[in-house]
Structures are given as C-alpha cells and as structure tokens.
Design the sequence.
C-alpha cells in the first residue's frame, strides 16, 4: 500500500494553456502540519499550480495527491481561496451568507443550514475580524474586506489543507499579522497551509516550508534550507528588484551561506 505521510504530493505535473507549457514537470511534496510558502516571480505559475491542484485547470500530465489520494477523494478536507479579483456580484448576498456557503458540502444545496452551521459561520467571521459586517452586502465591502470574507468561507469548512493564493495582497499590516497568527494556530493544530506570497522578507519568519517556482520547480524543502541566495537568484533572476530587496533584508542570514 502506498504510504500517505505527505499532505501534498506533486508528481511530474505539467500544465499547458493552449500549446504553451506554464508548469513543467513539477515533482515535490509538502509534509502535514506546516505553513508552506509558495514564491516565484509574476507569471511563474503559482496560481496555475493551485488551480491545477484543485482541478480548476486540467493537468497535461502528472498528478497531485492529498494525503495519498486524488482530489476527488479528498475534496471535503481541502479549502481553496483564489487570488483576489474584485467581486462585483449583482445579486444581493450578505457577508454572512457568503461564509455560510462554505458549509454547503455539509448541508447540501437543497438542505437547510443547521444552527451549528450558522454558529460556525459566525465564529469564522469573528476570526477574520469581520463580525461587524455580517449583514453587509458583499458588493459593498472593500477589496481587503472581501478577501477576509473569502478566507472566512474557507475556514468554516474546517479543512485539513488550506490553499491560499496571495491572502495578504491588499491587506493592511495589522490584519496581515492577525491572519498570519490565525494560520499559525491552524498549523499548530496539525493543519497544512499553502500560501502563495510575494513579501520575501517575511519568508523565514512566516513559513516552515518553502516552494520556489519559476515555471519549473526551483527548490522545495524546509525554509532554512531553501531560503538561500542561490535558490532565490535561480527563482527570481539576479536583476530582479525583489531579489535585491530580499537579499538586502536577509543579509544577516544569508551571510553565513556564501
Ligand atoms: N487562462 C490562461 N490562458 C493562457 N495563459 C494564462 C492563463 N492564465 C495564466 N496564464 C499565463 O500563465 C503564466 C502563469 O500564470 P499564473 O497566473 O499562474 O502566474 P503567477 O505565478 O500566479 O503570477 P502572479 O504573481 O502575477 O499572480 C503567465 O504567463 C500567464 O500569463
Ligand atoms: Mg498568481
């Protein structure tokens, strides 16, 4: 029997848009109970990777396993928050109902939410600091507030694996810290959290595990081993401002690695 000690196992994954390969032959794994950062330059294929993992875009070849099984067997244990696009839904739906939608897999489209579902939705809104907006129409929330709402909708599913595409984009620093603490709490409970992010200077502080992507896998492993000048240069290219910024900020850590 195949062991399933890894939360996520990516095996020879290649993804094309039309005839162009965006992700090439990725193979790596992520253990359970880590906060895993996924970084790479714009267009590196980070969002595409999460979409392929969630079956939103098809893989040309290869596959992604969650706890040793394909998505179809694990869907209820996984929550995914896509990269933010401004939501301008023209039907009226409150913030509370958006979060409650995260419980649909439990009560079904034709079922009715139970009081436990409503309580879970209230708790999730509180966790992201959005309880005051419960009755607000989603179209009347700011971009950052919508982002927090979608995170609440993911949290209410009580997933074992959480895939978040740039959850900190457009969010103020205090909220970012609060959300990070929340995610760290989930990690401490044994959940696995994958986070696409851009602020490289936070990588060592925020994450246990790091995946560097640039169409191909550049490196994957414990952040202490992966966050090196060489790997960052390969992922971002030496001329990238991000690379300069990250290395300047981490000069102390990186000095010992040269
Ligand atoms: N639906 C699509 N059809 C064709 N090409 C696409 C599509 N979506 C993305 N791409 C291309 O695939 C590449 C990877 O895009 P992706 O969105 O995965 O990058 P990313 O690493 O998430 O970038 P960012 O940091 O800007 O979010 C880019 O070159 C992009 O232009
Ligand atoms: Mg993206």
Sequence:
């Amino acid at each position: 029997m195949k062991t399933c000690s890894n939360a996520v196992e990516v095996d020879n994954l290649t993804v094309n848009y039309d005839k162009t390969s965006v992700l090439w032959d990725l193979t790596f794994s992520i253990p359970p109970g880590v906060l895993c950062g996924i970084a790479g330059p714009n267009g590196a294929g980070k969002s595409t990777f999460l979409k392929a993992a969630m079956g939103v875009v098809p893989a040309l070849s290869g596959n992604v396993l969650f706890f040793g099984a394909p998505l179809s067997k694990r869907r209820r244990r996984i929550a995914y928050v896509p990269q933010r696009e401004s939501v301008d839904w023209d039907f009226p739906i409150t913030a509370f109902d958006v979060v409650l939608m995260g419980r649909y897999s439990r009560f079904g489209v034709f079922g009715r939410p139970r009081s436990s579902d409503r309580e879970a939705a209230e708790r999730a809104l509180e966790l992201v600091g959005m309880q005051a907006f419960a009755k607000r129409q989603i179209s009347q929330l700011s971009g950052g507030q919508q982002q927090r709402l979608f995170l609440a909708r993911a949290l209410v599913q009580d997933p074992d694996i959480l895939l978040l595409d740039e959850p900190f984009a457009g969010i103020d620093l205090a909220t970012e810290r609060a959300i990070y603490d929340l995610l760290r709490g989930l990690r401490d409970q044994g959940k696995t959290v994958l986070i696409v992010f851009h602020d490289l200077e936070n990588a060592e502080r925020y994450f246990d595990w790091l995946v560097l992507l640039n169409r191909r896998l550049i490196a994957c492993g414990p952040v202490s081993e992966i966050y090196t000048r060489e790997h960052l240069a390969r992922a971002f290219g030496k001329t990238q401002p991000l690379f300069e910024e990250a290395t300047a900020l981490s000069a102390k850590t990186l000095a010992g690695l040269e």
Q: What stands out?
A: Confidence is low (pLDDT under 50) at residues 252-258. Residues 8-86+159-255 form a domain with the Rossmann fold fold (CATH 3.40.50.300). Residues 17, 22, 40, 42-48, 83 surround adenosine-5'-triphosphate (ligand 1) (CB under 6 Å). The two ends are 43 Å apart (CA to CA).
